[in-house]
Amino acid sequence: MSRDTELAEAQRELAYHQRHKRLWRALRLAAVVVLLLFLALVGAYGGMALARPADAWMLPYLAGGVVFLAFLLVLVARHRATDRMLDEEIAKAARRVRELS
Question: Which secondary structure element, helix H or strand E, spans residue 19, and what is its range?
Fold first, then answer.
């Protein structure tokens, strides 16, 4: 394979990994937004259950839902393993482009 072909291939690989990282960030942001919306919805139901004593039986379930949603929110927002993996792939591809150019 010629040097120009290898360089073009390395640049395509670098661009692919950079696009993948942008996509991952967008998906993670979308997941955080959805979880925040669900958390707000559970909070609204909790407020309605507090306002009406007949619906107080829901409160323990709603509290469990809030804890679970908060856990998922922290898990998604703080997930760094994929970021590290993508950073390593980008660094490898960038190093290869530098070597070939």
Answer: helix 3-51
d(CA 18, CA 36): 27
What distance, in Å, lies between the first and last C-alpha atoms of the chain?
15
71-88 b/e with 16+ CB inside 10 Å = b? ebbeebeeeeeeeeebee
Prediction pTM value: 0.75
Which of helix, strand or coil describes residue 94? helix
Q: What does the buried/exposed string (b/e) look like for 23-51 if buried means 16 or more CB atoms within 10 Å of the residue's CB? A: eeeeeeeebeeebeebbeebeebbeebee
Alpha carbon distance 38, 44 (integer Å): 10
Residues 60-87 have pLDDT tens digits of 888 898 899 989 888 888 888 888 999 9
Calpha distance 89→17 (Å, rounded): 7
Cα distance between residue 4 and residue 30, in whole Å = 39
